[in-house]
Amino acid sequence: MVLRIEDTDVARSEARFEDQLLDDLKWLGIDWDEGPDKEPQGPFKPYRQSDRLELYREHAERLVTEGKAYLCFCSPEELERDRERALQHQQPPIYSGKCRALDPEESQRRRASGEAAAIRLRIPEHPIRFHDIVHGPVEFSNEVVSDPIILRSTGISVYNYVVVVDDALMDITHVIRGDDHLSNTPKQVALYEALGWPVPEFAHLSTILGSDRERLSKRHGATSIANFREMGVLPEALVNYLALLGWAPTGGTREIFSPQELVKEFSLQRVTPSPAVFDMEKLYWLNRHYIKQGPPERIAKLAEPFFVRAGILPENLDEHTRAWFAKVVALLVPSVDKLDQLPERAALIFRYDAAAAVNSADNAEVLASPKTSDVLAVFAQQVEGGPSPMTPEAFKAIMNEVKAKTGVKGKDLFHPVRIALTGSHSGPEFDKLIPILEEGSRLELPQHVMNVRERLAAFRAARGK
């Protein structure tokens, strides 16, 4: 596998973009045999197109010498006028061929005298045919394929030309890309043939659509690897999901694949030409699977930066705090689609708000029940006389005592206590939550974690009871 940096678009090519691309690919678990970052460099170096400009210029001039390309002196203004005129007459906006019949010697004299000239490929006078692995036999009439510029008058080569030169000289056998490039392929095939190089296999993958069946774009949400990474989507989930877009495995029912299994199962012959719809919920479903199945230590480490950015954790955790935080993550991950949801889910641990719990409309019915005051009064007595720190075993014994003294059971017993300790009548199991609260209250954190006694006292003060 060769990694090539296609940076002939100077205005959009910056070192930071290249760094981001390399980082994204590595994060996905994709590696390459040759590329600009590999040492020693491979046999097809250099791997940045901006370092290969002289090579492109040489092959373009060879095509001119052989009569397979020609010099074009049309100004951008002329070309734009011709384009607008063609559109007004409902004609394809292709090049008129104005410079195609110019005498080659005269053209060279004009360029030598300083007149700006681009180089255009001479499209052959016959249909252009090629085979596509996904779409089958494809044919374009030469009348609809304009003589393309391959080298601008500024000396900068055009994308559709340089990729042909690079693919041929780097021994690329398969060109696999989105089907929005299908219309570029006849020009590229014509270039391969003009340069005397074998045409590679093409496979144009189906377009990805948003849920509204329009082409996927930023308005649909995240559309870059970095976006998904920042959301807390795991790389294995994203790779798994992307592979399923426009492709189905043998049998068509299985949906969860490791990267190694995808390598074994995948074939271009099973790619469909029909557009694929990007379904965020399906991606989140896969992400939930991989978060739950992932090693707890790894998931906690991946989750840590989200808590640091939220101001909940310090930047450098000591060993004790990191071990405690791993328990927090293990408690919360079953309820999230992606890791960036964890800080909000952790609010019940780090940002307990007694006043909000008392005033919440969701809690009103429970708090208005006459049984609630009895339950909380007895619970408070038992907690005051109970051990510190609270243990799950002691908590269970206390709840049994409250049940015996009040005669209240089920949700009428547990919901008031849960609201008092977490702010909500639903949430994690107490036997897992209580040790986290008690241990967390003894740690030095940006936001103090309140233990059971502190929460109960704050809640009773907020209720005025």
Description:
- The protein is mainly alpha-helical and 465 residues long.
- The chain has 5 domains: 1-51, no CATH class; 68-205, HUPs (Rossmann fold, 3-Layer(aba) Sandwich), CATH 3.40.50.620; 222-292, Glutamyl-tRNA Synthetase, domain 2, CATH 1.10.1160.10; 294-345, Helicase, Ruva Protein, domain 3; 350-463, Arc Repressor Mutant, subunit A.
- It is 48% helix and 8% strand.
- The chain is built from 21 helices and 9 strands.
- The chain has helices at 15-28, 53-65, 76-88, 104-112, 159-169, 185-195, 225-231, 235-244, 259-265, 280-293, 296-309, 319-332, 342-345, 347-350, 354-359, 364-368, 370-385, 392-406, 411-422, 430-440, 452-463; strands at residues 69-72, 118-121, 128-132, 136-140, 149-151, 174-178, 201-205, 208-209, 276-277.
- The strands form 4 sheets. Strands 1-2-5 form a 3-stranded antiparallel beta sheet. Strands 3-4 form a two-stranded antiparallel ribbon. Strands 6-7 form a two-stranded parallel sheet.
- α6 links the parallel β6 and β7.
- α5 (159-169) crosses α6 and α8 packs across α10.
- The longest helix is centred in the last third of the chain and has 16 residues, at 370-385.
- It is elongated, with a radius of gyration of 33 Å.
- The termini are far apart.
- 27% of the residues are buried.
- The model has no long low-confidence stretch (mean pLDDT 93).
